[in-house]
Amino acid sequence: MAKFPVHTIETAPEGSKPALRQLQSAFGMIPNIAGAMSTSPVLINSLVALFGNVHGGSFTEAQVQIILLTDAVTNACTWAVAFHTALALKEGIDPADVEAIRAGRLPADAKAAALSDLAKTMIEKRGRLSDEDVDRFLNAGFGEDHLLEVIAAVAASTITNYTGSITKPALEAPFQLHAWQG
């Protein structure tokens, strides 16, 4: 089995260093998953660009975390579940809603539930949403632009989730409290 390195800015390939600097600036650290991902400049740069768009889009940061946590659980990426649990709680998402998502259930909040349900359904159906799936989301008060924006968030989280499942980076101490097994 391959053992993937977790790069730092000093050890990463030249093409990955700007992306790692950007992540360090955003998070105050370089997440281990990004260090592992930086083995491929193409992958880390794709993720950073896509996440920049997702986090700068029309969803609140709490809504983004609902999508990303749901995706991490749906894709069974243990590192990402712990990471996004911590970020969701930091963004003020009700701890009961966070636990519901971690257990594969929908949050109690109706709008959060619609967002989580769409993200999970999009992954499970590989993007082949039915008219009912789309209508359920739109009837919760979201627009067509939001529906399409979820695709970008799912794409970004798929990069992270798949990388985590393949490289298996160690979970950093700040996220140990939120460790998860699917």
Automatic annotation (TrEMBL):
<dbReference type="InterPro" id="IPR029032">
    <property type="entry name" value="AhpD-like"/>
</dbReference>
<dbReference type="InterPro" id="IPR003779">
    <property type="entry name" value="CMD-like"/>
</dbReference>
<dbReference type="Pfam" id="PF02627">
    <property type="entry name" value="CMD"/>
</dbReference>
<protein>
    <submittedName>
        <fullName>Carboxymuconolactone decarboxylase family protein</fullName>
    </submittedName>
</protein>
<feature type="domain" description="Carboxymuconolactone decarboxylase-like">
    <location>
        <begin position="51"/>
        <end position="115"/>
    </location>
</feature>
